[in-house]
Design brief:
Layout (H helix, E strand, L loop, with lengths): L10 H11 L11 E2 L2 H8 L8 E4 L16 E5 L2 H8 L7 E5 L15 E6 L2 H13 L3 E9 H8 L9 H9 E9 L4 E2 L6 E8 L6 H11 L7 H8 L3 H6 L13 H12 L1
Parallel strand pairs: 2-3, 2-5, 3-4, 5-6
Antiparallel strand pairs: 1-8, 6-9, 7-9
Helix pairs in contact: 4-6, 6-10
């Protein structure tokens, strides 16, 4: 490999690059970069071919440089230093580096009808990033790598640890398939937790995510309180609970996503 060629799978090269560029990685941005090529190749094998790809968090390009050239790749990097560093390497023509914050970026700027979503998501933005995946019609399918704790929230069932608003949103708007774990040893610097690769497919449903989220926020506002008390405090009709056979003494974390949707629809009509 040429010394001018990027090798994101070499911790030694990454250390030298960061030192020479004066880059200090920030824990609060989740700057733990994938360095295990086998894991990267396993993820790339699952990417839907023939659809333009949208990557959130270029990082040092462990996934980016392995993406096939048959479709354009639009890859966002929020860190200005990392973006400058990557821009100094020769990259294939189908890869388009964008310096931007995904939480502020509108994919409609790319003027494409569909984008495959790919990201190694930092824990700090995982929830908001998934909500934006749901929000933008251009995203229909995706692969994300998230901390196992967040994956557990996405897939939690009523009464399980971590079950809450994110669980209901994911069950309502997405088909979520946990695919395989990724050891913390596959990253540099090594984080304190393991990760999981998850497949996402958007469902077609006639509900506005923001309205449902606001409704759930008012109901989950005090998780230790009963749903009856939360309804009273929010000014919501208790008879709706009774009509759906939900006990007033139930707690929010005991109510299934299907029941939450029934409640939401009944109150909105």
């Amino acid at each position: 490999m040429s010394p001018n060629e990027l090798n994101p799978f070499s911790p030694g090269q990454l250390k030298k690059l960061f030192s020479a560029s004066g880059i200090r990685l920030a824990k609060n941005r989740g700057q733990n970069y994938l360095i295990d090529r086998n894991t990267a190749e396993r993820i790339i094998e699952l990417v839907v071919r023939g659809t333009p790809l949208f990557e959130v968090g270029t990082g040092m390009g462990a996934l980016t440089i392995l993406l096939p050239p048959d479709s354009p790749v639009y890859t966002l990097e929020i860190d200005a230093g990392i973006h400058r560093l990557l821009s100094g390497f020769p990259l294939p023509e189908h890869i388009h580096l964008i310096h931007a914050d995904f939480l502020k970026f509108d994919p409609a700027e790319l003027n494409l009808t569909e984008l495959f979503f790919l990201s190694n998501l930092p824990y700090s933005i995982s929830g908001e990033a998934v909500k934006r995946f749901i929000e933008f019609p251009v995203f229909k399918n995706g692969l994300i790598m998230v901390q196992k704790e967040f994956m557990d929230k996405m897939t939690a069932r009523p009464g399980m640890p971590g079950y809450g608003i994110m669980s209901v949103l994911c069950r309502t708007f997405l088909s979520v398939w946990p695919l395989f774990p990724v050891s913390r040893k596959c990253f540099f610097p090594m984080p304190s937790v393991d990760s999981f690769v998850v497949s996402l497919t958007k469902k077609e449903i006639d509900i506005h995510q923001d309205e449902l989220k606001d409704f759930l926020s008012s109901c989950f506002g005090m998780k230790r309180k009963t749903i009856g008390n939360n309804f009273k405090k929010s000014g919501l009709p208790l008879e709706t609970l009774v009509s759906l056979g939900i006990p007033l003494t139930a707690r929010p974390e005991e109510i299934s996503p299907e029941q939450w949707i029934s409640l939401y629809r009944r109150i909105k009509t």
